[in-house]
Prior knowledge:
Radius of gyration: 29 Å
Shape: elongated
Distance between the termini: 55 Å
Structural class: alpha+beta
Strand content: 5-15%
Number of helices: 16
Oligomer: single chain
Strand order of the largest sheet: 1-9-5-6-4-3-2
Order of helices and strands: EHEEEHEEHEEHEHHHHHHHHHHHEEH
Largest sheet: 7 strands, mixed
Amino acid sequence: MKIELKEISIKKLFEGYQDKGEDGVIGYGGKLDIRPPYQRNFIYPDKERNAVINTVTKNFPLNIMYWAVRNNGEFEVIDGQQRIISICMFINSDFSVPFSGNKLSFHNLTDDKKKEILNYKLTVYFCSGTDSEKLDWFKTINIAGKDLTPQELRNAVYSGSWVTDAKRYFSKRDGPAYNIGNDYLSGVANRQEYLETAIKWLSKEKIEDFMSKHQHDKSAKALWEYFQNVITWLEKNFKIKKIMKGLDWGYLYNNFKDKLFDQKFVEAEANKLILDDEVTNNKGIYPYIITNDEKYLSLRAFTDSQKLQVHSKQKGKCKKCGKKFDINQMEADHIKAWSKGGKTIIENCQMLCVKDHKLLKNK
Length: 363
């Protein structure tokens, strides 16, 4: 990893400044991508924005910024976007700040004050290296205080045509992925969490390998089509309830998309399970119906008090092998399984030694 400390004047930073809306923000002679695909839109409120300008006008130092060096010699902002946009917007006279009791824009200032501001030096680290080195470095920056999500960090490393296109689908609050997937996904679209979820599903959790492979693809259409297929499958087979938002639907789709479901049966079973006081995790009801794996339901377990009473009733003996064990060497078991109508009550509890309980579970 190569890290170079530079001083960049505001005048140099502002050269070629353009805010092109959804197409991004550039500066530094058109060589600096101020708002790359993984970064948030400008969110500084007036107080913080004005504080940046106040720091500059008093010639106080701003915190160090980090720019990544791209393979073509251009740059993108990793840390400092909000401060840079605040500065450029002010130089562009997009807003005014208090000066000696008056609110003034940059164009209202005297020539000497303008020159002083334009000559102000920003401290910037230029960071270049391999993808893995960049990722480690960006994580270090994040730990030190930069509030990037994990997917924003990945996008910093694997930025390119694929990420730019994927953003069209997955990174807007009212964008395509949000409009069809908001009822099923947790997280925030414009913090790249919808994009992270979609890649996780398609790549089977190998997100970085996937992004490295497709970094320079021109289109992210395949990911978008896959995401649509998952949502269509959900809507066709299930009436998803709000409590189930955020489940790993991609895993379920990948493994069970060819399984046939009767929607009426599914709904009847779901309603039955919601009313079952043995089920402590209603969020897992559909995954259970899909997989038939009871782990999703977090079925009620016997309490320590119940175990102690049954252990005493059995005089410390395992119900299977008849040998005596301390209670911490035994496990509680349902005599009649939940799937057959058994309840988590003392009358349906037996204490088994660890070995016999394991053998019983493996049958």
